[in-house]
Amino acid sequence: MNRKLSAYLLLFLSIVLALVLQGCGRDDEITVDPVDPGETPVDPVDPQEDDGDDADDVDWAKAVGYVFDATVIPEIHFKVPQAEWDQLLAYYNADNATQEYVHCDVRYVKGGSETTLPDAGLRLKGNTSRRWPGDADSPQHVHFGLNFHKFNPDEAHTLKGLRKMDLKWFKDDPSYVREVFCYDLFRRYGVWTAIRDVHARLWIQIGDHKEKYYGVYGMMEHIDKNYLRIRRKEFGGKDGNLWKCAYPASLADTHASMGVDDNRSKYVYELKTNKTTGLEAAKTQLKDFIRHVRDLSGSEFDAWIASVMDVDLLLKTYAVNVAVGMWDDYWGNTNNYYLYFTTTDPAKYKVYLIPYDYDNTLGTSSSGLTGGDSGRQDPYNWGKDEAPLIRKILQNSTWRAQYRGYLRELCLGSGLCAKTVAQDRIRAWQSSISSYVSNDTGQDMKIEDKPASWGNHHEYRLLGGDSNTNWFEVKAAAVSSMK
Asked: Is 466 exposed, middle or buried (0-12, 13-18, 19+ CB in 10 A)?
């Protein structure tokens, strides 16, 4: 056998041996995703999204206080060139889950002050709520994402330092308050990880056509590096790993898909920070957390979870979740939350669960819960056994009592989620926007006290109803029965 053939044979045997050894590995071993040799590798990361430290001198408290001040309802105006809107439609027609941006100019008007933001990025948002965005003659309510910094990565292209915001129409929420109510409740109750969400009014002009009024939207803080900067004192830093977690993110499976947010791929766990160089270390860290959540039990689990999470904050988060009937969450549907690891060290970290996406609440529910009724569901058995984090925490009698106490504090007496207290806030919000709801789309033209039409409990009411149909009364009864 000649020397060249021997070398090829040796190489072949080495590859076979490596594959055999890899197949014998444990589920916690890291594997590198294969590259299709028929495709040209593309850098998946937009460098403008993986923010550096250039904005650390921004007064974040002042910036957020100005933009998300709920005492004034701001106006947002988009001016989108016809060619750019046509491109947005083309992106949607090619892929209705597109995350591609087009160019637009933005005006943000608040009281007597106006901020002009030229050449910003505009894209469609949403999951099951996605639909064709219409045109100048037939506008449609859709969710939008704004990135002022997208095409011009400098601080001049920010809104008081903020680079992004999300605009959500009140899909399936005739009350126009569900998501605003929930995020406000989180913050009133000391859950500082919750984002800000306030009402805003939206206009869009496409090309040379007349500007159209889209009505009242929810204007929401975007969860990204700026979100971390704003809370860096609470987190103890801002440079760790941020993951967006979507169904079925049970925290029980180390084989679940994990990858960077590249505007193209869909993952169960999607990395939002440190995307350029930190994916493998971030995956190792996340898998370490999942293994501990899945495999530890009893006092060993209790000691570990107390060392890596603020359990009290998590219990408060979940008391709010259950109080508002959030069934499409981690515990109920293994969906709709973020995780933030405060370091990039795969073995040494603190981790926080960040609540997210609260439009399907306050009586709007589906079969994601075992009992299918988010008002009457047992708060101790809210979600699925295959979501072990909360279930294991509540096996600790001290934490279980703490959780019960928080729910009683929220829902009974004069608590923030008790009937009359909650209704006062709802009426104030609805009164402030009632004259602005009618709009040029012809959709969602009035405020109504009812849940989404597709839900499985059409009877729930926020302001009306009786002991069997008023959301807050039904929830208070469920909480009162906790032992």
From this structure: exposed
